[in-house]
Every structure is written in structure tokens, then in C-alpha cells.
Design brief:
heterodimer, A: 269 residues, mainly alpha, MetI-like fold, B: 268 residues, globular
């Protein structure tokens, strides 16, 4: 009655999506990365990438992504840990997540006010006698806002892995005379490393490619790979160079994903 | 388990929560400032809200954003459900894994790369940048998350359920609409909501593929913010915050009602 071809009709939209919106864009980026400004095949973009300007930019982009991930982790882990000890922990967790549902741009915009010359942060600095400072358009404010943006995404996987932790292990460690620090170092942290890895992956890759935060908060102080791509595509209109940076960003992304191992959870920023 | 946490930890948590909500309430607070700046609160006023509702340009942009979000969530949910069914049919583990990897590429890719590559794609295809390019992009990056939300539901469905339906004389169409779809509804809802939030939240991809004539809220806020501070944005953010809270509550109720919906960990 039903032949095979009509039965597979339902697959068409999804297969089209994979072909046109997953595979084709990657191939196109790869193709454009080998084109110079006149549309000829060339390796000049790759040569350009290995000049000090771009290498330095890549390094600084990595440095900031690393810094952001580290600071986020340092604040997220204790928060997640304490959350698991609370009574209505799922509700508290939801309250952590809610800010992440507010449009990113609005949050960045709020910091324009908070870090502004007469904003709240400077009022606070004056009150404790440090005097007002230029906060906006510095790398400090950039890292601060980025950490603010990413922290819910870091807390979530860590919370989940802490929550799954079998409490009897802790009792066992306690009974066998381990101090609280030893218990944490030898048992809790190793058993929740998957959550930490997932959180770092969720933070690090978007942190490499942020561009609107850099533009709004850091001014010209910080240039990330994301800013460079945006610049090449939308300002300079040099799609070839933009694609080349994108190719490297994709390669870095795979390296980070490979390094952080867990293939189960994924995210976008 | 004991619930003791030290006072120090308690303070730490309170500070974290305060910091998380500070920017949002900061925005809302100054939306009532008659001074027109995000500092030096002068006196309470609702002028910003009045201005906002007379600002037809901004209202049209809000409308655009909502239309794009609803349409893209709807279409990507349909395609995503079909995709999940297809992946579920694949028996070989390796083929299944590679399909899933392909599926997940757009979830892990940085937005900048998605935006840039879609810009190339649309330009080559000769599609004029504007409403349709934005809509297509939003559909494209929402499909994989729908698949991820629906797939677990489909694969946990027992085959004997389908056999029973067929034995009782259900046609393929009836099996689909009377058995499969009701069973995976929680997954479909979760996928739809995720697609909705992805679309509403997106800035980078839209920024790349939108032309001159068409803007969504994120892009508009970006260009306004680059020019400095305008308290209209504050008034708008109050409204957005309230709407978000309503959506959160609805989502919370739906997922709690349909007990076994995908748990929080799938969120991001």
C-alpha cells in the first residue's frame, strides 16, 4: 500500500535544513576564506592571519575568554554548591536562571548606566573613599559584565552534577576521617568535574566570540575574534578575511569542545 | 540531608542574587526618572511609558520581533519534530551519532559564525536581506534545540504502544495523531518555548542578516545604546521584564503539570 518513497516524505524539510543551513554555510565560509578581495583564489588571508596583528588579537581574545571563564567558575561553583543545600533549591535555581532570559542587550545597556561616570558604581566608590574612576570602556568592566552574563549558564550544569552527587560518599569520607577540604578536593570536585567542564565550554566559546559586549562596554579596549569577524564582514566588507578568522574560530571551538570532553550538553551564548 | 549553611555562605548567596538582579531593577528604577538620565533620580514620572506607547517606530519593531519569534518557533517546531522522528528511525548507532552531531553544529557554533555564514548564504542565493532572511535564520538556529527536546520523548516511547494501536486497526495517520503526538507533547512544548526564547534573545545572527529596512528589538536596542542612553529603553525593559516573568510562570506551570518534561539541565 505505502511505498517507501512516500513514507520518507516527512524527512524532506529536515534534510533540506541540514543541507542548506548546516553543511552549506560551513562550506561557504571555507570557500570564502580562500578568496582575496577581488574574488580570486589565494592564500593571502591565511598569510595575513599569521601576522603579529592577528596573532596578538587571537592571543588577547583567548586571554580574556580564559579570564572570564575562570572568574565565572570561581563565583559559580560556590553558588551552585550552596544552592544545593537550600530548602526549595529548584525554585532558587529558577530564580538564578530568570535573569538569563532577559534580553542580553538590555543587561549590557543597564551596565552602561551603572558603570557610567555618575552611575551607581562610581557613587559607591566615592562613598568608600576611593573617588570616582573611569569604569566604562575598560577591560575590567568588560570582564565584569561578561561574567555577569555567563554566570547562570555556569551555575546550571554545576548545580545539576552536584545535585546528583550521592550523599553517602560524603558520609563515608566523613566517617573515614577526611577533613572538609579533603572531601571536597578528593570527592566532591572530581565527581562534579563533568558539570564544571560543561560550564566552561558554555562560557569559553561564546566568550571568544563576543562582539556586542566588546563594542558597548569595552569600547576599543578589547578586540576579540568575534569583534574582528563582525568588523571584516559588516564594516570593511572583506568577507575573505572575515571567513578566515571564522575558520580559525571554528577550529578553536572544536579544540575546546574536545578538551572539555563532555559531548552530552551543549549551549549557545 | 542537613540544611545548615553558615551565615557567611548566606551572605555570599544574598550578594550573588542581589548582583544578578541589580541591573534589571536598576533599569526599571530609572525608567521612572523625570531627569532623563540613568543617574540622579529627580522625581517620579510615567512620561517614558507615555512616550513609549506613542513611539510607533518602536512599537512596530516590537511587533516584528514577536511575529518573527512566533513564526520561527512554530515552523522550527514542526521541522524539528519531523527531524527527531527521522533520527529516531535510524538504527545504526554510528549513523545516528553523526546525524546528531550535524544537528548540534548550530547549537555549539558561536553566533557570529552563524550570522556571517548565513549572510554569505543569503547573498549567494540572491535573497534580499530583511524579514525573510531573519525569519529563515531564526528557524534554522531553532530547529536543533527542538530536536534535542523532542528526541528523548520519542525514543522513550515503547514500540509495543505503536503495535497495539496498529493491531487495533489504526491507520498510520491515526497512530501519528492519536498516539505519537499526544505522547510527545511535553517535548514539543518545551521545544517551542526554547525556540521562542532563542528567537527573542537573538542579537548577533539577526544583526548580520537584517537589511536596512527591517529591525528587531535587540538590534534596535544595540543601535540606540551605541548612541548613548535613552530612557525609552528603560521603560521598554520594564515591560519586557514583566512579560518574561509571565512567560516563566506559564512555562513553570506547564512543565510542572506534565511531570516528566525535560528537566532544567537541557536548558542551556
Amino acid at each position: 500500500m505505502e511505498n517507501k518513497s512516500t513514507r520518507s516524505l516527512y524527512m524532506i524539510p529536515y534534510v533540506i535544513w541540514i543541507a542548506f543551513f548546516v553543511i552549506a554555510p560551513i562550506l561557504l565560509v571555507l570557500y570564502y576564506s580562500f578568496q582575496d578581495l577581488n574574488g580570486n583564489f589565494s592564500l593571502t588571508n591565511y598569510q595575513n592571519f599569521f601576522t603579529p596583528i592577528y596573532l596578538e588579537m587571537t592571543l588577547s581574545s583567548f586571554w580574556y575568554a580564559f579570564l572570564i571563564t575562570l572568574v565565572t567558575l570561581l563565583f559559580a561553583y560556590p553558588t551552585a554548591y550552596l544552592l544545593t543545600k537550600l530548602k526549595h533549591k529548584q525554585l532558587w535555581l529558577l530564580l538564578i536562571i530568570v535573569p538569563s532570559w532577559i534580553n542580553l542587550l538590555l543587561k549590557a545597556y543597564a551596565f552602561l548606566g551603572i558603570f557610567g561616570t555618575y552611575g551607581m558604581a562610581n557613587k559607591l566608590l566615592e562613598a568608600i573613599g576611593m573617588g570616582s574612576k573611569q569604569l566604562l570602556f575598560t577591560d575590567f568592566s568588560f570582564v565584569f559584565v561578561a561574567v555577569y552574563i555567563f554566570i547562570p549558564f555556569m551555575i546550571l550544569p554545576i548545580f545539576n552534577s552536584l545535585d546528583k552527587l550521592n550523599a553517602t560518599y560524603l558520609d563515608a569520607a566523613n566517617d573515614l576521617g577526611a577533613s572538609r577540604w579533603t572531601t571536597f578536593r578528593r570527592i566532591v570536585f572530581p565527581l562534579t568535574i563533568d558539570g564544571v567542564k560543561a560550564g566552561c565550554q558554555i562560557t569559553f566559546i561564546p566568550a571568544l566570540s563576543l562582539f556586542m559586549l566588546t563594542r558597548l562596554i569595552a569600547g576599543s579596549q578589547v578586540i576579540t575574534l568575534g569583534t574582528a569577524i563582525e568588523q571584516q564582514f559588516l564594516v570593511t566588507q572583506d568577507w575573505g578575511m572575515g571567513s578566515t578568522i571564522a575558520v580559525f574560530l571554528i577550529i578553536f571551538m572544536f579544540i575546546v569542545m574536545f578538551a572539555t570532553g563532555t559531548k552530552r550538553r551543549r549551549a549557545r551564548g | 540531608m542537613d540544611k545548615r549553611i553558615s551565615p557567611l555562605s548566606r551572605i555570599f548567596l544574598i550578594v550573588m542574587f542581589a548582583l544578578l538582579y541589580l541591573p534589571i531593577f536598576y533599569l526599571i528604577f530609572y525608567s521612572f526618572n523625570s531627569g532623563g538620565k540613568m543617574y540622579g533620580f529627580e522625581s517620579f514620572t510615567l512620561d517614558r511609558y507615555r512616550e513609549l506607547f506613542q513611539n510607533t517606530r518602536l512599537l512596530i519593531i516590537v511587533l516584528n520581533t514577536v511575529v518573527i519569534a512566533l513564526l520561527s518557533a512554530l515552523i522550527s517546531t514542526i521541522i524539528g519534530v519531523l527531524g527527531a522522528m527521522m533520527i529516531n528511525k535510524v538504527r545504526s548507532r554510528r549513523a545516528r551519532d553523526s546525524l546528531l552531531s550535524l544537528n548540534n553544529i548550530l547549537i555549539v557554533s558561536p553566533d557570529v559564525i552563524i550570522g556571517a555564514s548565513f549572510l554569505i548564504l543569503f547573498t549567494i542565493a540572491g535573497l534580499k536581506l530583511g524579514f525573510y532572511s531573519v525569519l529563515l535564520s531564526h528557524i534554522a538556529f531553532s530547529i536543533p534545540i527542538v530536536v534535542l527536546m523532542v528526541l528523548p520523548k520519542i525514543s522513550e516511547m515503547s514500540p509495543s504502544l505503536l503495535d497495539a494501536a496498529r493491531d487495533l486497526g489504526a491507520s498510520r495517520w491515526e497512530v501519528m495523531t492519536k498516539v505519537v503526538i499526544p505522547y510527545i507533547t511535553p517535548g514539543i512544548f518545551a521545544g517551542f518555548f526554547m525556540a521562542l526564547t532563542y528567537s527573542l534573545d537573538d542579537f548577533a545572527v539577526t544583526f548580520f542578516v537584517t537589511g536596512n529596512g527591517f529591525t528587531t528589538l535587540s538590534v534596535e536596542i544595540y543601535s540606540l545604546a551605541r548612541r548613548g542612553i535613552s530612557l525609552d529603553i528603560n521603560a521598554l525593559s520594564t515591560i519586557i521584564f514583566l512579560i518574561t516573568m509571565v512567560i516563566v510562570v506559564i512555562y513553570y506551570l506547564i512543565t510542572n503539570r506534565t511531570k516528566k518534561a525535560p528537566d532544567m539541565e537541557v536548558f542551556k
